[in-house]
Amino acid sequence: MSNDRTKKIGVIINGEERTLTVHPADTLLDTLRAASYISVKYGCGTGDCGACTVLLDGEPVHSCQMRAIEAEGREVFTVEGLAPFPARGVDDLHPIQRAFVETGAIQCGYCTPAQMLSAKALLDRNPDPTREEIGEALSGVLCRCTGYVKIIQAVERAAALMRGETVEPFRHLEATLGDDESPQAVLGEFYAVPGDGLHPRTTLVISPPEMEPLQAVGQSSVKVDGVKLAAGRRAFADDVKMERMLYGALLISPHAHARIRSIDASEARVLEGVHAVLTHEDIPRVKYASGGQSYPQPPPFDQVCLDNKVRHVGDRVAVVAAETPRLAQRALRLIQVEYEVLPHVLDGEEAREHGAPLIHEEPDTEGIYDRDRNIVHHIEAGEGDPEAAWGRADHVFEREYRTSQQQQAHIEPHVCITYWDEDGRLVVRTSTQVPFHIRRMLAPLVGLPEKDIRVIKPRIGGGFGNKQEMILEDLCAHLTLATGRPVRMEYTRHQEFTSSRSRHPTVQRYRMGVTDDMDVVATELDLLGDTGAYGTHGLTVNMVAGQKGLTLYNTPYSAFRCDVVYTNKPVPGAFRGYGAMQTMFGVETLMSEIAEEMGWDVVEFKRRNWIKEGEELLMAKALGEGREGFEQSIHSNGLETCVEVGLKAIGWYGKRGQLNENPVGPIRRGIGMSVMGHGSGIAGLDMAAATIKMNDDGSFNLLIGATDIGTGSDTILAQIAAEELGVPVNDMIVYSSDTDFTPFDKGAYASSTTYISGGAVRKAAARVANEIKVHAATMLGVNLQEGGEASDGGIGLEDVMLRDRSVWFPDGRSVTLEEVALSSLHQQNQHQIVASASNMSYESPPPFGAQFVELTVDTETGEVRVERVLMTVDAGRVINPITASGQVEGGIAQGLGFALCEEMVYDDDGRLVNPRLGPYHIYKADEMPEIEVIFVQTDEPTGPFGAKSVAELPIDGVAPAVADAIHDATGLWLREVPFTPERVWRALREAD
Amino acid sequence: MNERVAAEVFTVAADASLQSVLNDPSSPPPVRRALSGIHSLQLRNETIVGRTLRASRLGPQWIAALLALGAGVTLDRDDGSQDVALDALIRKEEGGAVAALHIPILDADSAWGEAHVARTPSDMPIVAAFAVVRMDGETVQSARVALTGVWSEAVRLARAPDVLVGGPLDEERIREVAVTVEGEVEPVGDYVGSEAYRRAMAGVVTRRALKACLEQEEADE
C-alpha cells in the first residue's frame, strides 16, 4: 500500500551501502528483517530479551527499540556480515561463529546471532576479557536453553582464536573405571581438591569398566545444524515471506470471565487492507482440546476456536488478517465487543468450593468430573495395604507444599504461516513440537480431510512444552481459508504470557509414615492442580505428578488423590518437568524434613528408600498418562553412584551443617542436595519412526518426524545412525520434520526423543546396514546367510562389519559404501537401499540424578544467592556428552528460576502484573552460579545403545536442593516456591 | 561529549548515551556502579541521559546515584538557560528541556555507599539506596541518601539523613537514621515486595549504604 509518510534512508549494512524505504514508525528490527537480514530476531518488542540485537556503529543496541530512521547514515552490523555466504562448514565461519558451534553454545539457535554480536562488540574492544566481563557483555541477551555455560566458554574460545592462539578440540572428559576402582576415586584426576569449588570446565563422563567405547555414539560431535544456526540462515518459521502474505492478529479478552453479548466488527472489516475479521459468529463451533497428545486425546474437549464466552484475561476473542502487521493491530482496535462481565475465581482451592463461579457451564463440553465445583478431573489411585502400612509406621509426617505458575519463556514466540499449495492442500509452517498431532487435531477444526493438510516444522526457537499445543495454527488456518491467501500469525511477548501456556500451580499435601529403622512404609499425596481456564494437559500433567512423586521412593503403600480444577487464569499446559518437578519439590523436601527431625543423615535416609534396580514401579500401572499405564521395573539405576560421586565432588561431609559455625554479619551459608528420577517417553503410547535412504556417494538421508527444539536431537539421532552404519556423523543428512515427507513421530515431549525416536533410528539403520551387507556380499560373490550368525563356518550378517565407510568381511575383503551405493542404484540387482522402522516401548526407564547446591542467605533481606550447582546424572549411555550437558545446564537454569524468582502474578481482576520478560525475570548470563555436570553412565538394556533420557530430569531437583540448602543455612523449611526475598524474610521473622 | 568542566564537576550532555557516561573515566564511582549494575549494554547504548532525567523510572538507581551526589542540570527555557538541582527537576519543582547534567566529583573528604535488595543478582532491585556523605574532619558536612522502590515515585532523597549533619558518622547514628527512614518512606507494595517488606528494606539498605560510607571514612583515616 502506498504511504506518503515513507522515506528513503541510506544505511551501511555489513559494509554495504543500502537504500531502504521506511515509515517513521518502522522499527529497525522490522526494517532489517524486511530487507532479508533475518538473523535479527523478534523476541519481545520491549528491549527485555535482546534477541533483536544488532551493532550500530559497533555498539550493541536493541533493534526493536530503535526506529529505522534513527539508523540513517550509520553503520549497522548483523550476523550475515560475519562470514561470507555460503559458509559450508565450521572452517568457513568467523571465529566467533566457529567457537559457538564447537563448544555446543548453540541449542535452539534463536538468540545465537544476538549473543555472537554481543561477543563481537566485546572482543573488538577487549581481546582478552575475563569471564565476568563476558557475562556482563552477554547479560543483555536472554537465553532460555543453555544456562549460558557454553556460551561463555564459546566467547573465551573465540577470544583465543581471534588472538591467533591454537585451541584444543572442545570435548568432554572421560574416565573409565578399572575393575576395582570406585567412581569417587577417579574424581581426584579432575578435582584437585574435591569440594573446593575448583572443577573441570567441561563435562566429565564416568563409564563403568564393562562399557565399550563406540565410534560415533558417545562423542561430542558438533551439532548437525550448528553451521546454519551460527550463520543466521533462514531456519525458523518466520524466516520466510510468502508472496501476497497477510498478517494475522489476535484480539484477546481484557476480562477474566465474561460472556460476549455482541461483537461489532463492521468498522474493522471496511478498513482498507483488511481482508478478514473472524469472530465466534464466523467459525463453526467444533469442540477440541489444544494439548498435542496422541490419539485419542484425553478429555475434555472444552475449547472451540472462538467462543462466545471468555474465561481468562488473554482468552481468544477475534482474529483479523490484513496487509501489514500495523494495519492488523489497527483493525483489532476497531472491533467493538460488548461483554457481560461475570464473577471470576483465581484460586484453585476457592474454585472447587460450592458456589464458586461456574467456568464451564456449556452443555457441549463432556467429561468434566464435577462441573458445579469446577473440578475437571478427579484421580484416585493406590497400591498396597494402607492398614498394614500405617500400622508399621512409628512416625507420621504431614506437610503441605505449594508451587507457582512458571512460564516457559522460550525466546522465539509462537509463530505460524498457513497457505494453500498448488494442489489445493493447506500447508502449515509452524513452530511446533508436535507436527503430526497438529495435522490430526487441525483437520476437524478447519473442515478438511487430514490428507489435505501438510505441517512443516522448521527450526524451533525453544519450546519446553509450550509448543506441544495448538496455539495459533487453527486461527491462522481459518484466516487462510477465509482469504485464500498466505497468513502469518505471531504472538507478542505479552500474549505469550497471557494466551499461551505455563506450568500448573499445585498444592501438595503429603502424608508419610516411617519406621524407627528409617524405612518409608506409607505415602499419601493429595494434590490440587490448577489447570486454568481449559483442561488441555490438566489430566496428564497431574497424573505424572502423582506417578513420579510417589515412585522415587516407591513406598509399599502409596495413595494418590487429586483434583484438577478450572480457574479463570491463563492456561497451564506442558512444561519441562511436567508435574514431576512439582512433586519432586514436595517429596524431596519432605524427606529432608523428616531426616532432620529424626536426626538421621539425609543422604542415608534417602539412600535406604529410593527405588533400586530390579524394583517394580508400584504406581506405574495405576497412573499412566491420561489412562492406565503398564507394569514396569527398573533395569538400570546409577543413582547410588551419582550420589557418591556428587558427595565427593561437592565436599558434602566437610560442609553440611558446618558452614555457619562462626557466623559474622547477616550472611549464612548452606549446602543442600536432592535426588530425582524421571522417565523416557510415555510407556505403551509414544511411537516414533525413522527412514534412512542411501545416496550414490554412500551418504544417507535420515528422515525423522522427531522435532529438535534445541535439544540437539537431530544430532544425536544422526550419531545413532552413524554408529550403526559405520560412517562419520556428517555423512548423515538429517531432515526433520514434515508430515508429507518424514515418517510419524509423536513429537518432542515426555523426554522421549533419545529413547523412543533413537530406538526407531537405530532399528532403521540396522535394517539399512543389513541391506548394505547383503548387497556387498553379492558384489564380492560371498554366500551370506541372512539369519544372523552363520552355521557350519559360513558367513552371517553378524560377521560382516560396517566401519570407516566400508563393508568389511571376515576374510579382510571390503567394499566402500559408495561402491555399494553405485552398484545397487545403477549396476547390479538394482534397488534403492532404504529402510524404515518404528519404535515404541512398554517401558519408560527413568534417568536418575543427584543435585547439590551451595548458597548464601542474607538473613536481613531474605535474598538467596546460589553460588554453585553440581549435578550428577545417570542418563544411561550418553549419546553426545556436550549436547547432553547443555540440556542439564539449561534445565538447572530454569530450575533456579522456578526456585527463586519466576512466578506469574495476577491482580484481583485476573490481569497478569508481570507479563514481560524483564519484570518476570529469567536468569541472565552475569548472574548464573557455577554449574558442573558429571555423567555416570549405565547401560539401559531397553534403550538405543543403552541410552535413557536427559532433557527433563535436571529441572526436577533444583528447588528441593535449594530448599535443603536454605535449611542448612538458616534452620528454616520453606514450602512454597519461588523462595523470593520477601518469603524468606517473612519466614525468618516468624522464626525469631 | 562528556566534559569535566571544573575540577569538581563532571558535565554530561543531555544527548549522551548512558554507556558513554559509563565509559568515561571521569565518571564518579557511584554513577559507574549504578549504570553497570542495572542496565544491559544495549539499553545503555540506546538510552540518552536526558530521557532518563525526564522519566526516572527508566533508571531509578542511576537517578538515585545522581541525587545522592547532589547532581544539577542545565535547563533550557524560553527565558534562557538556568542551572538547578536535579532534585528539583525530579520533584517537578523545575521544568524545561534538559541541556546538560552536572555530576559532582567525589573529593577526598567524601564517601559513598550503595545497597540493594533483589530477587536475583542481576534483577531490577526491589529497594535500593545510594548514599554520599561529605565529612569535615570528624563531622558530617552533608549526607544524602536516595532510595528507590519505597515511594510512589521511582526515586527520592530521604530527609532522615539530614540529622547526621553536624555530628560524627558512627554506627549508632546510622542505625537511628535507618529506623527513621523506615518511618519516612511511603512504599507501594507490588508482586516483588509488599509495603511492609519495602519499608523494612528501606531501613536495611539505608544502613548498609551509610555503613559503606563509614567504612570508607575509617579506611581513609
Salient structural properties:
heterodimer, A: 992 residues, alpha/beta, 6-stranded mixed beta sheet, 35 strands, B: 221 residues, alpha+beta, 5-stranded antiparallel beta sheet, 28% strand
Structural commentary:
The complex is a heterodimer of chains A (992) and B (221). Chain A is built from 26 helices and 35 strands. In chain A, 28% of the residues lie in helices and 21% in strands. In chain A, helix 19 packs parallel to helix 20 (753-780) and helix 20 crosses helix 21 (817-827). Chain A has 992 residues and is an alpha/beta fold. In chain B, a hairpin with a 6-residue loop joins strand 8 and strand 9. The longest helix of chain B is centred in the last third of the chain and has 26 residues, at 195-220. The termini of chain B are far apart. Mean pLDDT of chain B is 93; it is low at 1-6. The chains are: A alpha/beta (992), B alpha+beta (221). The A-B interface holds A 47, 50, 53, 56, 59-62, 65-66, 118, 121, 136-137, 139-140, 860-863, 865, 900-901, 903, 905, 913-914, 918-919, 921, 923-924, 926-927, 978, 980-982, 985-986 and B 19, 36, 40-43, 45-46, 117-124, 126, 190-194, 197, 200-201, 204.
Question: What is this structure's SSE topology?
Answer:
The complex is a heterodimer of chains A (992) and B (221).
Chain A: E1 7-13, E2 16-22, H1 28-34, E3 53-56, E4 59-62, E5 75-77, H2 95-102, H3 112-125, H4 131-138, H5 149-162, E6 173-176, H6 183-190, E7 204-207, H7 226-230, E8 246-252, E9 258-264, H8 266-270, E10 274-278, E11 309-310, E12 316-322, H9 325-334, E13 336-341, H10 348-351, E14 375-383, H11 386-392, E15 395-403, E16 415-420, E17 426-430, H12 435-446, E18 453-456, H13 473-483, E19 487-490, H14 493-499, E20 506-514, E21 520-530, H15 538-551, E22 557-565, H16 580-598, H17 602-609, H18 639-650, E23 667-677, E24 687-694, E25 700-704, H19 713-725, E26 732-735, H20 753-780, E27 784-785, E28 795-796, E29 801-803, E30 806-808, E31 814-816, H21 817-827, E32 834-840, E33 848-858, E34 864-874, H22 881-900, H23 917-920, E35 930-936, H24 953-956, H25 958-970, H26 981-991
Parallel strand pairs in A: 1-5, 6-7, 7-35, 8-19, 17-18, 21-22, 25-26, 27-28, 34-35
Antiparallel strand pairs in A: 1-2, 3-4, 3-5, 8-12, 9-11, 9-13, 10-12, 14-22, 15-20, 16-17, 16-19, 20-21, 23-33, 24-25, 24-32, 29-30, 30-31, 33-34
Chain B: E1 2-6, E2 9-13, H1 18-23, H2 29-38, H3 41-46, H4 49-54, H5 60-69, E3 72-77, E4 80-85, H6 86-90, E5 97-104, E6 110-117, E7 127-136, E8 139-148, E9 155-157, H7 171-184, H8 195-220
Antiparallel strand pairs in B: 1-2, 2-5, 3-4, 3-5, 6-7, 7-8, 8-9
